[in-house]
Design brief:
Elements: E1 2-3, E2 9-10, E3 15-18, E4 23-26, H1 31-40, H2 44-64, H3 69-81, H4 83-92
Antiparallel strand pairs: 1-2, 3-4
């Protein structure tokens, strides 16, 4: 959120609701990702790829019904150690 003239807040819409698809859709790029990339000294492309991979992991967890704190912690720990292997294990139902 920025500040416009007169001190009024200026909102940045990242997502917009699409009633036809009954889903949120990206409206514009998040400026937070740029800030994170700059402060962590990683490229924006790397950050977007990681974001996509994490969304894929969470979608696979939802599909498998992984929702207990124990399983979620186990998956995230495995992901931290080896992201690719954890993603494949969740997709295959091995975790």
């Amino acid at each position: 959120m920025g500040v416009a003239r007169g001190g009024r807040p200026r909102l940045h819409y990242i997502f917009r609701w699409n009633p036809e698809k009954d889903a949120l859709e990206p409206a514009e790029e998040s400026r937070h990702l740029e800030t994170i990339a700059r402060t962590r000294f990683v490229s924006l492309d790397f950050l977007k790829a990681e974001y996509k991979r994490r969304r894929e992991l969470i979608a696979a967890m939802v599909e498998r019904g992984y929702s207990t704190p124990y399983i979620v912690a186990k998956v995230f720990t495995q992901y931290h150690l080896n992201p690719e292997a954890a993603l494949e294990a969740v997709k295959a139902g091995r975790i």
